[in-house]
Amino acid sequence: MKLVFASNNAHKLSEVRDMLPRGIEVLSLRDIGFNAVIEETGTTLAENSRIKAETVWEWISRQPSEVSLQVDGVFADDTGLEIDALGGEPGVYTARWYKTDGNHLTSNVTTPEDENEIFAANRAKALRMLEGHSDRGCQFKTVITLIRRGHGVKQFEGIVRGCIATEEHGQGGFGYDPVFIPDGYDKTFGELPAETKNRISHRARAMQSLANYLDRYQV
């Protein structure tokens, strides 16, 4: 089975490839030549996830048959950090939260350096917004939308509870990992081994549901 993951994020691609059953080849947007900007206009993670998957699938469907028929489906994820003391912020704005402060960092992310700059700005904002708060509880949520030829649309959700650390710890992972401490642990995702994170994270839980589904219906 050949599926397109609606992302070019190298970190995410590595994670999802490790989590899916054997026999499933995962392609990136770059692999299929998709380079359009997808407007995430949804108000929920589920809506944005579906928008991304549908946009890519529609594009694939318009390609010549020797291209489109080589792909069995597409899946997309949308992930949000929801901080209790901030009323669920940043939510759907998790990846671009820094922009709401009027910061003007790289808008077209094309290199790992661009991503690192944005990740650092988002983490700094989380720490700044929670200064003086005793309640640092939060959760990460991932919603995955799968569109498979002849099988319609399916969605899968994963949630992990935790809290925001008072400062960054660890160099592993990406995004908010150095400031997120999952429940039951005393280390951030940035400090935990990748195999541990890939077992307990929000994306891992959503991906496990997807993997279980594909394992049952891989025909």
Would you write up a description of this structure?
The protein has 219 residues and is an alpha/beta fold. It has a single domain, classed as Maf protein. Helices cover 34% and strands 22% of the residues. The chain contains seven helices and seven strands, in the order βαβαααββαβββαα. Strands 1, 2, 3, 4, 5, 6 and 7 form a seven-stranded mixed beta sheet that branches. Strand 5 (137-148) and strand 6 (152-164) form a beta hairpin. Helix 6 crosses helix 7 (202-216). The longest helix has 18 residues, at 112-129. The radius of gyration is 17 Å and the shape is globular. Residues 103-112 have low confidence and may be disordered.
